[in-house]
Amino acid sequence: MPEPSFFPRGPGLTVGEIAAISGARPGEGTDPAIVLSGMAPLDRARSDDLSFFDNPRYAGQLAGTGAGCVVVAPKHLSFLPEGLAHLVAENVQQVFAAAGRRLFPAALVPASVTRAEGISPSADIDPSAEIEDGVTIEAFAVIGAKVKIGRGTIVSPGAVIAPGCAIGRDCRIGAQVSLSHAFLGNRVVLHPGVKIGQDGFGYVVGRAGLDKVVQVGRVIIQDDVEIGANATVDRGAIRDTVIGEGTKIDNQVQVGHNVAIGRHSVIVAQVGISGSTTIGDGVMIGGQTGINGHVTIGDGAQLAALSGVATDVPKGARWGGIPARPVRQWLREVRFLSELAGKGRTPRNERDD
Description:
The protein is an alpha/beta fold. It has a domain at 13-107: MurE/MurF, N-terminal domain (Udp-n-acetylmuramoylalanyl-d-glutamate--2,6- Diaminopimelate Ligase, Chain: A, domain 1). The protein has four helices and 39 strands. Strands 10-13-16-19-24-27-30-33-36-38-39 form an eleven-stranded mixed β-sheet. The chain has a ten-stranded parallel β-sheet with strand order 8-11-14-17-20-25-28-31-34-37, with no helix packed on it. It has a six-stranded parallel β-sheet with strand order 18-23-26-29-32-35, with no helix packed on it.
């Protein structure tokens, strides 16, 4: 692993401490007093690094690893080389993530750019703004009239907070974020370039062309939401756009007006969600999926990457494809078409291009 100069190592944790915070158990012959101060992949780990093994395709790397300890599932214990210290857990990734949060706490949320606390003299703050003690506002940020910002929040350089917005406590507003017509809960993280609260896309055909449909709703972002770089969330037209508690949204996602997203959902990069869509709790949406307007995706549903969703998705369903349909049906159809295409080839049409 390269020297983590951006996130320096601390004193580390013992294997026993990692077991205690994660629910893993030290494997047979493993000394719980081993101290680990870093994390690394199997092929680059050193004696003070924690690594993990959860896929047999990396058995060769496991055999030659220099890691001080490896997290492994019970079903993969047979792959371990003799004498390698290990932690055993059913959910390997969960244990590795728990250790990472304790080893590198500074990596949990973005820090201020300047590392300075308080309000920069180069920030432009309206006198009517209400800013609690303990807020950091960095250079060239703009804070509009009657904005409210809770303590522990960091507003990074170049961010623009439009009049009337409210930001809760311990939030992180990244560089060049634009926030308007929006209320944020506590511990919300907006990564650089996020745009919140701009016009939704609304037009009607008029006599002279396209006439604007006004967008007079808001954006409501609940506690513990994290939104990745350059994502966009449009404000509602005549109702609010809402993102529920604990939901995580990846980079470059587009959320249209009036969309309602439930709690603890995961939306991966470059997803496009059209207006007035309702997404339930615990939904997982793969990258580059497109979702039609006015559809409902039920609680716990999963959508494969590159899907095109045109109709409602039932609660707990697993769908994929274009148009999206149940995964088993989709895979059956793909296999059938592939076999049919193979059977239909003749000497005159052997080319695939």
